[in-house]
Write a structure and sequence with these properties.
Distance between the termini of chain B: 32 Å
Distance between the termini of chain C: 38 Å
Shape of chain B: globular
CATH architecture of the largest domain in chain B: Alpha-Beta Complex
Order of helices and strands of chain C: HHHEE
Low-confidence stretches of chain C: none
Structural class of chain C: mainly alpha
CATH class of the largest domain in chain B: Alpha Beta
Number of strands of chain C: 2
Mean pLDDT of chain B: 95
Strand order of the largest sheet of chain B: 1-3-2-4-6-5-10-11-9-7-8
Low-confidence stretches of chain B: none
Mean pLDDT of chain C: 88
Largest interface: B-C, 80 and 60 residues
Number of domains of chain B: 3
Strand content of chain B: 5-15%
Largest sheet of chain C: 2 strands, antiparallel
Radius of gyration of chain B: 21 Å
Helix content of chain B: 25-40%
Helix content of chain C: 25-40%
CATH topology of the largest domain in chain B: Amidase signature (AS) enzymes
Largest sheet of chain B: 11 strands, mixed
Strand order of the largest sheet of chain C: 1-2
Number of strands of chain B: 11
Number of helices of chain B: 14
CATH superfamily of the largest domain in chain B: Amidase signature (AS) domain
Oligomer: heterotrimer
Chains: A alpha+beta (476), B alpha/beta (467), C mainly alpha (99)
Strand content of chain C: 5-15%
Shape of chain C: flat
Chain lengths: 476, 467, 99
């Protein structure tokens, strides 16, 4: 039996604001527990929520970046349930009138190539606090610093057909949201969380199978592993004649397995209703247009433009736009006068290595452009330039030309030194000279090589050849 | 009674006098916390103010669902026994800045759910005019203190009439502002789309400056309306040019004879003062009480979910010893019967399969009720109705049947649903028990309502028997 | 509409309220009384007015993203039933742990 896998993803991202969604506490990470709290996020009697304008701005920008329709009127709703990390006994979220609906993400699926996944909705809500189970023996410890942090929830249509595809979608989604400045999207720091829904059905059948929910995946790689495990579990179940139950499973990164949660309670009845403490959120078309205008160029558009304007390949532009700072750096180098293709190669090579390691650009775009110029002008060889790059990375004071001279890497492309080396080589290889003159012109490369050796790499090959030609023609 | 600015020692004097009066009125069980030390501290604070404000030296009692740092806030419930709030309600900050002395926290129906103040975990409040009767509720403690002359003004809260109704039962003025006029930040939430902090006063002139002081937008409450604070009522010479509508649904044929007589007398007085009256109709008012008893419990069920024994308040853990046992026992034992009933009803009407039939339907009916008022106010300036169907009933009379208790709010409930300002004015006595007349104004037209009430009050002998 | 024992127990569970055996049947009666009463709204035609009504502002006013939390007169530790090492504490066991 051939099975088709159907996957939908729910992603929660923390919006890059200074303060919480409904109160003026800081959202910084790592402060002592229960110190960034106030009556509102502690759920004290009498406290009331007031929404954060920047959170709405960022959520709207995220929605626009994902091609969604932003609704001019949306409504905050209470999602009611009891849990120790939920101070009010309800979460303020959005239910049947969310901020945005109907977008899509275009990405490269490893299975099906370039494809689109629908975005069902994007809405805003507040985060819950944190629970620590091992802090005090026999107790659960509650820290409400995180309670009230602004989140955007992004729900995809169940358009994904494999765990690997799900991972690729996540990579692109994350990239778009980082470009848009909406969130840091770091799973390690908890500013991006993923919950997955998975079901299977026989290939060709339209009816969806029972879906399960998979949680507790802390990296995109683990999302893929978890979904592989869950798909396997469901296939085994069904093929042995049993049914898939609608359960929630937790992924265990250590074992690579998924296990149903111990909670056997029925699915939650959240009893959603519009939050009476919050009038409707009303956005004007003009304001929405301002958010659209405030969006930087997004990855897809940037790739397309780089390909067009700089005549780069799709592979190149994908690498260059993998992260917004890299793309910005590349364009600055070109603006400073470097040839685009050369600049691209440098950025994808040495620059990217150092950026991935340090997260910064030790060599400024103008210095790199200058370095590229030196190579273009034959002042240094490409080999020498690579060595110069590391040198320039050590401090930002020295100009490339000066560094080249200091290290003795300046190529000699003319002058007495060059003529001297040529004469020495020709004198040392009389037999080859005779053969050349008799017509073995391919010996030119031998002579060039010898001159390079004699000059210990300092000779500029481009300058050597004419001098050799001249000399070889002269001797009679 | 207005304080003269700059009179040194008025705070200290008021503190001492109020302490004596509070002590003398202890049998009413109207207060949940007060102390001489705190009163003296309040007096000293007021005397130390550079620029005493418009309420300088006036003692004011607060219903115990308004949070204060200096006094505990229990909401009349065991679940909050001993709870002290780490912040003050906005209204408290505004009162203190105006020079008022916070005198005491008053007894109430638990979490403001009730119409008789018999549902407090700390005992019922007695009506000062007849201790065997209820003072009304849920703000019974505040009403009783003003009626007993302990303080000239007090704050209560309304969700479905909980200040107007006790005002009527106790023979004092009770003013509910428009929804969104006064900040709810620091009012323990019951029905968020209905809750209004409201004012009791011996007279309109006592209550109006307090309402004016506490009103105005608050950045901490997103449901306050961005309009300027309320001014003081005008001193009208008569009611010439004012038309009062009498909605026929509020004058049923079986209305208590004393109440009917009092309203007849008030109507006559309006005409004598040059106003006119006409009959109007608010047909959807008959659905107000059931509508209210869907919406208010639903919002309350969510608002009271935070009382879970985790972060504050009393905690009790059941035998299983786990987190669920903590929740269920804390709440099951900490909440009284009426509160538990309302939480269950509220949870029921929001639950899967019932939301459309109950909650959503109730919100639609609410819109019809509000529309009735809008339509009627195109033709009249104010409305006049009885505040309550009867004078104060005996303690224990209505506690058996929850619905019988709900019906005590039949005349005051619809204004809460529509968010309108309304007040109760004492207009007479029936067998010694006070009767209140209700005046209702359009949204944000409190000044019109207070001005009319003022001149009516001056021309009415509220202590006179009506028959 | 009739509410049975199961309904009341279910709702009590959703609301995390322990219900005593002794009060159960009275509670069922009272709930039925109340719900039958409020169901008089069935008489109102369900048409026309699509929206509900709430007084107050038509649109929410947003607050700027600046640090401005209401200060607490005393810290959480002073209010908490159980507090240690900076955390609120609750019992551990139960169907909570996995999440």
């Amino acid at each position: 039996m051939a099975w088709e896998t159907v996957i939908g993803l729910e992603v929660h991202v923390q919006l890059r604001t200074r303060t919480k969604m409904f109160c003026g506490n800081r959202t910084t990470f790592g402060d002592p527990p229960n110190t960034n709290v106030c009556p509102v996020c502690l759920g004290l009697p009498g406290a009331l929520p007031v929404p954060n304008a920047e959170a709405i701005r960022l959520a709207v920008r995220g929605a626009i970046a994902l091609g969604c329709t932003v609704h001019e009127t949306s409504v905050f709703a209470r999602k009611n349930y009891f849990y120790p990390d939920l101070p009010k006994g309800y979460q303020i979220s959005q239910f049947d009138r969310p901020l945005a609906t109907g977008g899509s993400v275009t990405f490269e699926s490893p299975d099906r190539g370039r494809m689109k996944v629908g975005i069902t909705r994007l809405h805003v809500e507040e985060d819950a606090g944190k629970l620590l189970h091992d802090r005090v023996p026999g107790k659960t410890a509650v820290d409400l610093n995180r309670a009230g942090t602004p989140l955007a929830e992004i729900v995809s249509e169940p358009d994904l057909r494999s765990p690997a595809e799900a991972r690729a979608y996540l990579t692109t989604l994350r990239q778009i949201l980082i470009y848009a400045g909406v969130s840091d999207c770091s799973m390690e720091q908890g500013s991006l969380r993923v919950d997955a829904n998975l079901s299977i059905r026989p290939t060709g059948v339209e009816k969806l199978g029972t879906k399960t929910e998979v949680k507790n995946m802390n990296s995109f790689a683990n999302v893929e592993r978890a979904l592989e495990a869950e798909r396997e579990r469901q296939v085994v179940l069904v093929e042995s004649g049993r049914r898939v139950e609608q359960v929630t499973l937790l992924f265990n990164a250590g074992t690579g397995q998924v296990k149903p949660t111990r909670s056997k309670e029925e699915s939650h009845d959240y009893r959603y209703f519009p939050d009476p403490d919050l009038p409707p959120l009303v956005l004007t078309p003009k304001w929405i247009a301002e958010q659209r205008a405030a969006l930087p160029e997004l990855p897809e558009a940037k790739r397309e433009r780089l390909e067009r304007v700089y005549a780069l390949s799709a592979t190149d532009t994908r690498a260059l736009t993998a992260e917004a700072p890299l793309a910005r750096y590349f364009e600055s180098v070109v603006d400073a006068g470097a040839d685009p293709k050369t600049a691209a190669n440098w950025v994808m090579g040495d620059v990217m290595s150092s950026y991935n390691e340090s997260g910064s650009f030790p060599v400024s775009p103008s210095r790199l452009a200058a370095l590229i110029g030196l190579v273009r002008d034959g002042v240094v060889s490409h080999q020498a330039a690579k060595r110069l790059f590391s040198e320039l990375a050590k401090s930002d004071e020295e100009a490339p030309r000066a560094a080249a001279e200091r290290l003795g890497l300046v190529q000699v492309s003319e002058g007495n030194a060059l003529r001297g080396w040529v004469d020495e080589v020709l004198a040392a290889n009389p037999a080859e000279v005779t053969r050349f003159r008799q017509g073995e012109i391919k010996l030119m490369s031998f002579f060039v090589g010898q001159v390079m050796k004699k000059s210990r790499g300092k000779a500029d090959p481009k300058g050597v050849q004419p001098v050799l030609q001249e000399r070889l023609a002269q001797v009679k | 009674m207005t304080a003269t600015a700059g009179q040194r020692g008025i705070g200290a004097t008021t503190a001492r006098e109020t302490a004596k009066r509070l002590a003398d009125a202890a049998s009413l069980n109207a207060t949940l916390s007060w102390s001489e030390e705190l009163l003296d501290a309040e007096g000293a604070r007021v005397d130390g103010m550079n620029k005493p404000g418009p309420l300088a030296g006036i003692p004011i009692a607060l219903k115990d669902n308004i949070v204060t740092v200096e006094q505990p806030t229990t909401c009349g419930s065991r679940i909050l026994e001993g709870y002290v709030s780490p912040y003050n309600a906005t209204v408290v900050e505004r009162l203190r800045a105006a020079g008022a002395l916070i005198a005491a926290k008053t007894n109430l129906d638990e979490f403001a759910m009730g119409s008789s103040t018999e549902h407090s975990a700390f005992g019922r409040v007695k009506n000062p005019l007849d201790p065997s009767r209820v003072p009304g509720g849920s703000s019974g403690g505040s009403a009783a203190l003003v009626a007993a002359g302990v303080v000239p003004v007090a704050l209560g809260s309304e969700t479905g009439g909980s200040v107007r109704q006790p005002a009527s039962f106790c023979g004092v003025v009770g003013v509910k502002p428009s929804y969104g006029r006064v900040s709810r930040y620091g009012l323990v939430a019951f029905g968020s789309s209905l809750d209004c902090i409201s004012v009791f006063g011996r007279t309109v002139d006592d209550a109006a400056p307090v309402l004016s002081t506490i009103s105005g937008p608050d950045a901490l409450d997103a449901t306050t309306v961005a309009r300027p604070p309320l001014g003081l009522p005008k001193a009208l010479p008569n009611l010439a040019g004012m038309t009062f509508g009498l909605p026929k649904e509020y004058f049923p044929p079986d209305l208590d004879a004393g109440v009917a007589a009092a309203l007849r007398r008030t109507t006559e007085m309006i005409k004598q003062l040059g106003g006119s009256v006409r009959e109007v109709s608010l047909p959807n008012s008959v659905y107000a009480v059931p509508t209210y008893y869907i919406i208010a419990p639903a919002e309350a069920a969510a608002n009271l979910a935070r009382y879970d024994g985790v972060r504050y308040g009393q905690r009790r853990v059941g035998p299983e010893g786990d987190i669920r046992a903590l929740y269920r026992t804390t709440r099951g034992e900490g909440f009284g019967e009426e509160v538990r009933r309302r939480i269950l009803v509220g949870t029921y009407v929001l639950s899967a399969g019932y939301y459309d039939a109950y909650y959503r339907k109730a919100q639609r009916v609410r819109a019809l009720i509000a529309e009735d008022f809008r339509r009627v106010f195109q033709d009249v300036d104010l409305l006049l109705t009885p505040t309550t169907p009867t004078p104060a009933f005996k303690a224990g009379e209505k506690t058996e049947d929850p619905v019988a208790m709900y019906l005590a709010d039949v005349f005051v409930c619809s204004m809460s649903l529509a968010g309108l300002p309304a007040l109760s004015l004492p207009v007479g006595r029936s067998n010694g028990l006070p009767i209140g007349a209700q005046i209702v104004a359009p949204y944000f037209e409190e000044e019109r309502m207070l001005s009319a009430a003022r001149i009516l009050e001056q021309n009415t002998d509220a202590l006179a028997e009506v028959r | 509409m009739s509410i049975g024992l199961e309904d009341v127990l279910h709702v009590a569970k959703l609301a995390e309220l322990a219900v005593r055996e002794s009060e159960l049947s009275r509670l069922v009666d009272q709930m039925n009384r109340i719900v039958d009463y409020v169901a008089t709204l069935d008489q109102v035609p369900a048409d026309g007015t699509a929206q509900g009504f709430v007084a107050g502002p038509d649109a929410v006013v947003l607050r700027e993203d600046v640090e401005a939390a209401v200060p607490l007169a005393f810290p959480p530790s002073a209010m908490a039933p159980e507090f240690a090492q900076g955390f609120f504490l609750v019992p551990r066991h139960g169907a909570m742990e996995d999440q």
